[in-house]
Amino acid sequence: MSAIQNYEDRPWMDPEAEPFIKIQSVSKLFGDFVAVDSVDLEIYKGELFCLLGGSGCGKSTLLRMLAGFEMPSSGSIMIDGANMTDVPPYERPVNMMFQSYALFPHMTVEKNVAYGLKRDGIAADEIGKRVEEMLSMVELTQFRKRKPHQLSGGQQQRVALARSLIKQPKVLLLDEPLGALDKRLREQTQYELMALQDQLGITFVVVTHDQEEAMTLSTRIAVMDLGRFQQIGTPTEIYEFPNSRLVAKFIGNANMFEGRVTENSPDHVTVESHDPECQFYIDHGMSIQKGSKVWIALRPEKINISKEPPANGNANVIKGMVHDIGYLGGTSTYRVQIGDGRIVEITSPNQVRPKDGTPPIDWDQEVYLSWHASSSVVLNK
Amino acid sequence: MNTGKRSKFLFSTICFGMAFLYIPIFLLIVYSFNASKIVPVWGGFSTRWYGVLFESEEIWASVALSLKIASVNACFATLLGTLAGLALVRFGSFKGRTLFSGMISAPLVMPEVITGLSLLLLFITLKEFIGWPDSRGFNTITIAHITFSMAYVAVIIQSRLAGMAQDLEEAAEDLGARPFRILTDITLPLLAPGMVAGWLLAFTLSLDDLIIASFVSGPGAVTLPMLIYSRVKLGLRPDINALATIIILAVAIGVLLAAWIMFRQQKQRELELKMSEES
Amino acid sequence: MNTEAGLEAGSGAEVSGSMLANWANHVIHHHWRTLVLLVPFIWLLIFFLAPFFIVFKIAFAEAVIASPPYTPMIEWVDEGIMHIRVVIDNFAYLWEDDLYVNTYLNSVKISTISTILCLLIGYPMAYAIVRSSHTTKHILLMLIILPFWTSFLLRVYAWMGLLADQGLINDILTWFGLEPVRMLYTQFAVYVGIVYTYLPFMILPLYANMEKLDWTLLEAAADLGARPATTFVTVTLPATIPGIVAGALLVFIPATGEYVIPDLLGGGNVLMIGRVLYNEFNANIDWPVASAVAIALLLVLVLPMMLYQHMQGKETESR
After folding, report:
1. B150 — pLDDT class (breaks 50, 70, 90)
2. pLDDT tens digits for A231-269?
3. A151 touches chain B (CB under 8 A)
4. DSSP-assigned letter for residue C63
5. Are residues C143 and B22, on separate chains, in Cβ contact within 8 Å?
6. Which of B169, B174, B188, B266 would best serve as a mutation to test chain A binding (most A beta carbons within 10 A)?
7. Rounded to a whole number, what is the distance in Å from the CA of C293 to chain B's nearest CA?
8. Is residue A7 part of a domain?
9. Closest approach of A156 to chain B, Cα-based (Å)
10. What is the domain partition of chain B in residue ranges?
11. What confidence tens digit (pLDDT) does each residue in A272-321 have?
């Protein structure tokens, strides 16, 4: 590892970088209900940060506190060095794109986009110029005189985006920005959004419940549950190194095994599981007590499925029987029954074309499941 | 077989119900063209009662008074009812909210005789203490009508506000609009159709009211319902049939026109939506 | 000299004018919430709440031949002693006089039976409207609402012509060789009048309630083997109870206090509270008794009125 690191794309790694948004022990209570439970978060300039979680996890409340629609019950919010905790929405250097787009139905596209600039008392010709620029950027110039209800869903989404970007906010908040679009449009728009963010350099904070969306879009993701952050990290960190069973299960699929640590040395760890009977060998050390209870998470695509037993000994192998096969074309999903009746899911690419149409692995066949010593994730909660 | 029997039953229910609702009105119109002075006895076709009606200065005076009261009432009731609806839906909880919401919805279910009696007693008491209102008529009827019409307007406004997505107002706030700006830029324009509906309802309620007006009116101020009532109390009158026909036709034309305009707008919208999807 | 003074006065007015505008601007931008709330609030306090206190006050006073024709409730006797005179005679009078008691019972009876009749006619109509096709539904609904916009008084008047001794119904009866029946100025005419005018009040809440129903429930019940009658009793009826209650209250409450219908169609034969109150006040000029009648009428209606408000409150909350 070289001593001089390039922090440009990873400002959170830079020990000297100043966070752009600083959320300090913020809580929000609605009556007795704790929507957000004393969270701390630092977001850096130019990030595309995702708040990911199921409904009612507190992600939207946190976003609304950043926008100023909700005041924190306690804690503070700083944006670009200024305390924003008690500043009303209309004075914050932050704009929001609503999930419903919230386009003003009685105003044309042009007037919707111009609205924010008008409120700032900017001269009419300046407003006209900037609206024009913005409309041509989102390719809506020909629709400028239309009302929102005369536009398609994708066009409405772009009007909403243009309207929230025109004031050049320090932070753009996006509440489920792609939620209302159909699947194909969503994928296309994802990349447009990323390109736009790159071009403008504005810090984006996105709320979403869609993990795929979060993984493609973001520089970092915060996984939220019950008003708290479960894990904050890059998409790779969150997927490959989840810190809890909850995160492992929420992001992608994971097969979970319960076991006990039987050996803990600096260069490897072994875990013994009885349900099913199996030994896990992990090729790196970790700070964990010998004898303590742990869970092993194994991603479906990290498991190798074969008819012959693998060559490398007894560890990291389970014998099972194919229960079900889901053929998806490029990949197949195997559901394999092991030992006592548990089902393990394996995703495997179909690299070889079967000669006579029969798949290499068939229903009710006995198979061996194996994985690399670095593939399993040890979790203690 | 079974559904056939049921739909036949439902169909005849509708026919019977509509006949029940419309035959009396239809006959009212037919008999306005009766030449005979005795309403139920047909004496040939004539329009003479319309002539009688148009010559009556009394009728014109009461029509003018009723229209004047109805329009002033509708404007004030729309204003006050809109304010009340805004306060109830958008201000959250405030001191006296229960009292306020009780007072705004009570006139909807209050028997007219009680509202009329209590308001008259108020006007009499006020006159005794502050010397106002020195005479009862246009002012007192209008005030009484505003008091109960604003409740209806408030209900319309409340339901429109409750149905209006709050994120529009939040979006405006987010873009830099202060609360009063949000009210004038977003909330009120979106409430406009509700306010129009409220205005029309208040106008009609005022035109239709007999009892409250009878209580709070003074000598010389006779509204149209009061005049009609004083005439029909003694029996059937062909000129009232003619008057009823004119009123019913005016209302029917107004309602059909409104329905047609709404239908046109709906079509226009659908067309525009189609265009946007194609483009 | 003259022009100078004129100029001064002019500029003075200008200054105070712009100050006033500034002040108004300031008030609107900073205290508009208070204004929005206070204007209707104060209006209702003066013109809705205060009158009720006056009615209460007068109901507990004695009738005297004077102007106003009642005794004051609070009198300042010599030496500053406040003397509160409360007369419950008016209520005792109502209670002891058979006429009033019968009027009350009759009003409640008439409005109850009318409510049931409205329900029996309105329920199948609402059901039929809900189940008809999209366009028909809108046309039918408009036809139900349309009479609302025409004069209530004239709709009652229309029935006078139908029910009169020489009216159309009796004409038809005679034509068939039957004896004419006296209908106008009887209790029957009052029922017809109330059902006719208040039927839309029953149909509309029922329609609103049925419109929200999940009609696949009926199919599910039929699929599980319920006959139409069973389905109706076990599924449809319980699901439409909120609509029935709302509709019933909307008919019962105004019908109880009704004045025009018993007066025009019932003549002198049908006694209802609304009429007694009106006559007591305008013909007998007995304000205390009229006020006592008003309070007694409120007592009859306060429960249904509160029930209705409670339901409305729940409705808006659930939205």
Report:
1. very high
2. 999 999 999 898 888 898 888 888 888 888 888 888 888
3. yes
4. B
5. yes
6. B174
7. 9
8. no
9. 11
10. 57-263
11. 888 777 888 888 777 777 888 888 888 999 988 888 888 776 778 888 88
pLDDT at C80: 47
Residue B119 to chain C, least CA–CA distance (Å): 6
Q: Are residues A93 and A225 in the same domain?
A: yes
Are A103 and A241 found together in one domain? Answer: yes
Contacts of C301 in chain B (CB under 8 A): 109, 111
The contacts of residue A294 (CB under 8 Å, 6+ apart) are A258, A259, A260, A261, A271, A288, A378, A379, A380
Output the pTM of the full model. Answer: 0.84
H helix intervals, chain B = 2-32, 48-55, 57-90, 97-109, 112-130, 138-163, 167-174, 179-182, 188-208, 211-216, 224-232, 238-278
Least confident of A92-101, A339-348, C84-93, C133-142: C84-93
* Top-ranked range on mean pLDDT: pick from A256-265, B65-74, C148-157, C212-221: B65-74
Determine whether the interchain pair A104/B177 forms a contact, defined as Cβ–Cβ distance below 8 Å.
no
Tell me, which fold does domain B57-263 have in CATH? MetI-like fold (1.10.3720)
Mean pLDDT of B23-45: 85
> In the listed set A202, A221, A246, which residue is the last one of a domain according to the structure?
A246
Domain tally, chain A? 2
Q: Which of A246, A281, A313 marks a domain boundary?
A: A246
Domain that holds residue A48: 17-246
CA gap C10, B252 in Å, rounded: 55
Check B225 against C153: CB less than 8 A apart.
yes
| CATH classification of the domain holding A339 | 2.40.50.140
How far is residue A76 from each of residues A40, A68, A83, A231, measured CA to CA in Å? 10, 12, 7, 21
Closest CA relative to residue A376, chosen from A291, A274, A286, A266 = A286
Note whether A69 contacts B: Cβ–Cβ < 8 A: yes
| Residues A160 and A49 both lie in one domain | yes
- Residue holding tokens 């009229």? C290
